[in-house]
């Protein structure tokens, strides 16, 4: 949960001081295995196709309107598998999960739920056109017309506690750890053997988190970025969006006072979150997710009121550049990885439910490289791995014309 307030997590103990390997991280480019993708496509008002690609076999398990669970072996075509279900009532709620026979072993996907809305996938017509982009073509600091910063860690020195954001992460976010170099946005994660005292605490690890909040936001569209990431214990890079209705603050200055810090949203889940891509530790998988509040309207964050609909996909070597994309329509959000060569969605979520009204409002973009924290299992980064880098070739937003 990228915007979730810290849940009773204090700061880390001091890492053992070590000599740091100060060298630019090398992006290795071995051939990656074909990625397993899966999901569903609504093919008519009353039918749906389930699919699994790049697997030796696959089963689908589904229910319609809370009826009895149906279980079927999917029809193979080489390494791709499909299963069609017809005669589904318009407006029916369909829940399903898939059992995938992947090269790394069989696994079950998470339960996914959608509503038969009477349209086809994708429902809208009209061509996509680029409405905004940053290609990071000018060396120096990120373009101030596009980007602000979230500064801090969630620690509020006035309250002496965590306030409104953070997930038990170890880094202090600051603008100077984001720069544009040789056609890429570079977010650098640092470890210092000598701490810096900020907000009354000692900080050893630094990174950056940049956002278009206050600069640019969009309602619906294709949002994508081409990204290469570190693949190391205790790293948590992310490309995601939050509802612009969130009551968080941002810092516009590239050189704010050392004591500066931002407050993150107290109404986090009720303004919505779209995780286009998250990664953790040494995994080959990247993660996609959606968060919303079960109530309608804006509310302070509260346990038991948050919903999510996660998925993940094996992309191979995350140190290579991959294109991470969502297509956000009024009725659904679809996720893609390397959509130019893999045009089938890896995850699809219906957003027509009345308590998903968050996703009918504008959102802004966030890019960051977190260190440790809840999502990583509080994994401890190795000081010898620093500095570590997240590279972004471009960020682009398209909308239907």
Automatic annotation (TrEMBL):
<dbReference type="InterPro" id="IPR050546">
    <property type="entry name" value="Glycosyl_Hydrlase_16"/>
</dbReference>
<keyword id="KW-0378">Hydrolase</keyword>
<dbReference type="GO" id="GO:0030246">
    <property type="term" value="F:carbohydrate binding"/>
</dbReference>
<dbReference type="GO" id="GO:0009251">
    <property type="term" value="P:glucan catabolic process"/>
</dbReference>
<dbReference type="GO" id="GO:0004553">
    <property type="term" value="F:hydrolase activity, hydrolyzing O-glycosyl compounds"/>
</dbReference>
<feature type="signal peptide">
    <location>
        <begin position="1"/>
        <end position="34"/>
    </location>
</feature>
<feature type="domain" description="GH16">
    <location>
        <begin position="136"/>
        <end position="401"/>
    </location>
</feature>
<dbReference type="InterPro" id="IPR013320">
    <property type="entry name" value="ConA-like_dom_sf"/>
</dbReference>
<keyword id="KW-0732">Signal</keyword>
<dbReference type="Pfam" id="PF22184">
    <property type="entry name" value="CBM_56"/>
</dbReference>
<feature type="domain" description="CBM56">
    <location>
        <begin position="27"/>
        <end position="116"/>
    </location>
</feature>
<comment type="similarity">
    <text>Belongs to the glycosyl hydrolase 16 family.</text>
</comment>
<dbReference type="InterPro" id="IPR047569">
    <property type="entry name" value="CBM56"/>
</dbReference>
<dbReference type="Pfam" id="PF00722">
    <property type="entry name" value="Glyco_hydro_16"/>
</dbReference>
<dbReference type="InterPro" id="IPR000757">
    <property type="entry name" value="Beta-glucanase-like"/>
</dbReference>
<protein>
    <submittedName>
        <fullName>Glycoside hydrolase, family 16</fullName>
    </submittedName>
</protein>
